[in-house]
Design brief:
The complex is a heterodimer of chains A (606) and B (359). Chain A is α+β, with helices and mostly antiparallel strands. Chain A has twelve helices and 22 strands. The longest helix of chain B has 39 residues. The complex binds protoporphyrin IX containing FE.
Chain lengths: 606, 359
């Protein structure tokens, strides 16, 4: 709490600069929290616990601390974008950990792999939101109070306000005030007459918008947090013709929030009837997907009626609050494996993973059981598979696909036998063949047995060990099934936030006073002045329009050369920034703010 | 089919020619602006100094001015007198780069006309690029960059057309546009090519276009902020009795006053902030449809968030005692730096789902 004197004074000056410079007139043009002054009693942490708590609360809900917390929040978000995050990409985190053995323990301590759920990041935003609530509640109360009360009376010297105008008229003062009331009301100002002047105010929507915005932020945070806690998200790869029903065991992988309850999985099922991908055939756009859709038949509930649906990349299927997204697609060659006696051991469509935009794919075909070698002993078969939907042609470069559609499909296989290692207890990647416990089948040249096949072709394993036939190609699609409650609230909150923000930033809250008094020469002197939250180019313009409207009822009187009542010239020697503002301010720094109703009304004194 | 493809390629080439031509015209505009500044310097300067060092400094106060109202001049309409808020220096705006000289002004007008021409050429370059690929031209950094500078110049011209006092942005804007286009055509250039399927969505139009508009307009605000900082030091030096260098005086003297520049940047930033908020939310909705989650702390999302919070901090600073003025201005620059990093840094150095930089 030690602060240099100079900043202290500057802050105090600044505060005077804000509205309060105009005394009660600028009072409560905003509900922004008053800055704590370090030198006042309240600022010194009192001895008692209550005192401390109160002090802490005041600090937390001050604008300065809100600002610092906002700044910390943005600083705190940075490391998460530069260091791989577990929640975003687990594999990358693992790779990073393998590479940086010295940094890893430090990063782990600092929770830098889980920045957005770390203790320190949560602390920042929780403090910010506590501060926000602590700020909104009193501000809302204050604002409601302002809506109930009336705009404050005119300050003594209107000439000091940011926009000012005056003229002399033959009309009676009462008449002028009457007209002013009518003009201002016509423009939807809240208006009333105090003494010899009319006080008016407009633009309350600014404050309302600001409060709505801040409340919407809370709604969004709560929606987001509950979404994180209750969400579930799983992935599933499905080959054409296969189906899925929404139970935990069916997922390839599954993640969920900490409060998620697996009973809440929506009961539905679907079958992938067909995957359709078409691509631009020529031109610079060659290969660009034109259609990309999964046609499904789905049923809601345990045994609901079957319905047809289409899932596209940006158009998920929504069933019972759960969304099914199309994430990826690829090819699954259908192969039949036979043993030495010609008996079919397995026949299946094996999904392969795409490795480029033209869907060159790779993967593994594994025959786990059912196969017996020549001697009748059980063993396992494995094939490394490489697939291109459109082959370049024999001898033309490497085996990479030329086009994503199935124009010239070719499957290349190399064959192994032995143990696939699936029983080792370690999780195995289905798309990779672990050949550490396998032996190569040898071709006639004594090298690894390999063959490129077109649909219908067959690869014979040596010495009557059987064969594998490439029957055809199916397509597969992978889906993400996610359920995240709170989306509606988050969306509602964000719409409210934008609306509130627009109100808060585009609407000016301002006050206008019109004073009409009879001068010594019997002619009425009209003075008008305006005051806004911040300086606005529109305020003088508006005042100009208002005065123009008023002039129709109170026309400018023929110039009276030396009218004794002419208000002092605006460029009086005491310019802005000097102390005069505070001499007539009723709430000089430190003193009790004056309620407009009690503010001295000048007309009454005259 | 082949015929169509051929047209597309020739359209792409036309687009490149147009972009290069616009660079040539911008270069001419750049020299015209330089001429404006050089020839304008022969004018009488020292108004600021006079305002600040007159007896009873700061007291020349209340710049009287008739409020423009509705266009029709009301003859016996009372004159509205304005005065600056307490705490700000009361200094008149500078006369602009032309410094009130005829020659300077002529070159300034030539510069603006050339900028208009360059803008039209560049805009058609962007449009033909869009036609050549038959989609919104925002799929890689080359396309972002050319659209970005087009929008920045367009916004500037709109402000000019609205008769706002913004000609002082001309030189810095044209300079940076040349820089932006230079980088675009050399290091960022990507042949017109395919769109990844996730970008096939009308959200591309909504989300990316507003993102580019926000950046371009935030940029104008940032230029204002930087000039505010310079001009503010200049004014405080004068106010404290110092004598700034001749060159500094000549340049600073012609800029609008610090408080006008500050207000300009505030208005720009405040006006764009809701749009930026919308951009992020639109992005979240799109992410929800395309990737199955609306917020996943992807680097691009993180930096949009950081930028947003930084601008929110700036807006707060302006309402916080002790943080107005220069401190708030620094925050505004930090916020814009975040935006820039999100645009260049994240695309180039950080890999994430938004990896369509094409570099
Ligand atoms: C969650 C983080 C917050 C964000 C993103 C945020 C954002 C904003 C924005 C964008 C504005 C509009 C600025 C303007 O009207 O000029 C604003 C105004 C305001 N905020 Fe916040 N705010 C946050 C937290 C807080 C907190 C914790 C407080 C209380 C201490 C607070 C108090 C205010 C006040 C009083 C204003 C009105 C300022 C004025 O009238 O100019 N805000 N805020």
């Amino acid at each position: 709490m030690s602060k240099s004197n100079s900043t202290e004074t500057r802050e105090r000056e600044d505060e005077r600069g804000r509205g309060s410079a105009h005394g009660a007139a600028g009072e409560r043009l905003s509900t922004a929290p008053r800055e704590e002054r370090p030198d006042t009693g309240a600022g010194v942490p009192a001895m008692s616990v209550v005192g401390w708590v109160r002090w802490f609360w005041r600090q937390l809900t001050s604008m300065r601390v809100a600002l610092i917390l906002l700044f910390l929040l943005s600083l705190g978000a940075i490391p998460g974008s530069l260091i791989p995050q577990t929640s975003v990409d687990d594999m990358k985190v693992q790779a990073f950990k393998d590479q940086h053995t010295t940094l890893t323990p430090i990063y782990e301590k600092l929770q830098l792999f889980d920045v957005y759920s770390s203790v320190w990041f949560s602390a920042i935003y929780i403090l910010l939101f506590v501060s926000l609530i602590g700020c909104i509640v009193p501000r809302t109360g204050q604002f409601v109070g302002q809506l109930r009360s009336r705009p404050p009376g005119a300050p003594k010297r209107l000439t000091r306000l940011p926009a000012y105008t005056t003229w002399r008229t033959e009309a009676e003062p009462e008449e002028v005030r009457e007209a002013a009331l009518a003009v201002l009301r016509g423009r939807r100002f809240r208006t009333h007459e105090v003494g010899d002047a009319v006080a008016a105010e407009k633009g309350y929507l600014r404050e309302a918008g600001n409060l709505v915005f801040h409340i919407a932020l809370i709604v969004m945070l709560v929606a987001f947090a509950s979404g994180q806690l209750f969400k579930s998200e799983g992935g599933k790869l499905i080959v054409e013709g296969d189906g899925f029903s929404n139970t935990l065991t069916q997922y390839d992988d599954f993640k969920s929030g900490s409060l998620y309850d697996s009973d809440s999985l929506a009961p539905f099922s679907f079958v992938l009837d067909e995957f359709v991908g078409t691509y631009e055939k020529s031109g610079p756009q060659r290969g660009t997907p034109r259609t990309f859709e999964a046609r499904v038949t789905y049923a809601e509930g345990a045994d609901g009626a079957e319905r047809k649906g289409v899932i596209k990349v940006n158009e998920p299927l929504v069933v019972d609050g759960t969304k099914v997204y199309l994430i990826a697609h690829g090819y699954a060659p259908v192969v039949t494996v036979r043993d030495g006696r010609g008996k079919v051991v397995s026949r299946s469509a094996v999904p392969l993973l795409p490795i480029d935009n033209n869907i060159t794919s790779s993967g593994a075909i594994k025959v786990m059981d059912g196969y017996k070698d020549k001697k009748g002993e059980k063993t396992q078969l494995g094939f490394k598979a490489f697939f291109v939907p459109t082959f370049a042609g024999e001898g033309k470069g490497q085996m990479f696909s030329q086009f994503p559609a199935l124009d010239f499909p070719v499957l290349a296989l190399s064959a192994y036998h032995g143990s696939l290692g699936v029983d080792s207890g370690l999780a195995q990647n289905v798309y990779q063949l672990d050949t550490s416990k396998m032996k190569e089948f040898k071709g006639e040249d004594g090298e690894l047995l390999k063959k490129m096949m077109m649909p219908g072709e067959k690869l014979d394993l040596p010495d009557g060990a059987g064969s594998i036939t490439f029957d055809g190609v199916e397509e597969w699609a992978s889906f993400q099934v996610s359920q995240q409650p709170g989306n509606g609230w988050a969306l509602g909150g964000s719409v409210a936030a934008i609306a509130g923000l627009a109100g808060s930033l585009f609407i000016q809250r301002r006050r206008v006073w019109v004073r009409a008094v009879r001068g010594a020469d019997g002619v009425t002197v009209v003075e008008m002045a305006g005051l806004g939250r911040s300086e606005s180019a529109k305020l003088p313009e508006e005042l100009g329009d208002l005065s123009a409207a008023l002039v129709t009822t109170a026309p400018v009187a023929p110039a009276a050369a030396e009218a004794p009542d002419t208000p002092e010239k605006p460029d009086a020697p005491d310019g802005p920034g000097s102390t005069d503002a505070t001499t007539d301010a009723t709430n000089e720094a430190g003193s009790r703010p004056v309620h407009p109703a009690e503010a001295p009304v000048e007309g009454a004194e005259k | 089919m082949n015929l169509a493809a051929a047209t597309n390629e020739s359209l792409a080439n036309t687009s490149n020619v147009l972009i290069y031509s616009s660079m040539a015209v911008y270069t001419l505009a750049f020299f015209a602006h330089i001429a404006e500044w050089v020839l304008g310097s022969r004018s009488k300067v020292g108004r600021t100094a006079a305002a600040l060092s007159a007896p009873g400094a700061g007291a020349s106060a209340a710049t009287a001015g008739k409020a423009r109202a509705g266009g029709t001049a009301v003859l016996d309409r009372p004159e509205v007198i304005t005065r600056s808020a307490t705490g700000t220096r009361d200094v008149p705006d500078g006369p602009g780069a032309a410094g009130g000289t005829f020659k300077g002004d002529l070159w300034g007008r030539i510069a603006v006309s050339l900028t208009v021409v360059a803008f039209l050429v560049e805009a058609s370059g962007v449009a033909t690029r869009a036609l050549s690929v038959q989609r919104a031209p925002w799929a890689n950094m080359y396309e972002f960059s050319i659209t970005f500078s087009t929008v920045a110049v367009g916004s500037y011209l709109v402000l000019l057309a609205l008769k706002k006092n913004v000609r002082w942005i001309g030189l810095p804007l044209v300079t940076t546009v040349l820089l932006d286009l230079g980088i675009a055509v050399t290091t960022l250039y990507t042949d017109s090519d395919q769109l990844v399927p996730a970008l096939h969505s009308y959200w591309l139009w909504i989300h990316v276009s507003t993102a580019i508009i926000c950046g371009a307009v935030f940029y104008l605000g940032a230029v204002g902020t930087v000039l505010y900082l310079f001009r503010d030091s200049y004014e405080s030096k004068l106010a404290s009795g110092g004598t700034p260098g001749k060159f500094a005086s000549s340049v600073m003297e012609r800029l609008p006053s610090a408080s006008s520049l500050d207000k300009f940047s505030y208005r720009i930033n405040a006006a764009v902030f809701p749009l930026w908020t919308f951009t992020i939310i639109a992005g979240a909705i799109w992410a929800g449809d395309a990737w199955g989650r609306y917020w996943g702390w992807d680097p691009k999302e993180v930096w949009s968030f950081i930028t947003w919070v930084a601008y929110a901090a700036y807006l707060h600073a302006r309402a916080t005692a002790g943080w107005k003025g220069r401190k708030a201005a620094y925050l505004a620059l930090v916020a814009f730096a975040c935006w820039l990093f999100n645009y260049y840094g994240v695309n180039i150095f950080v890999s994430g789902l938004h990896s369509y930089a094409g570099v």
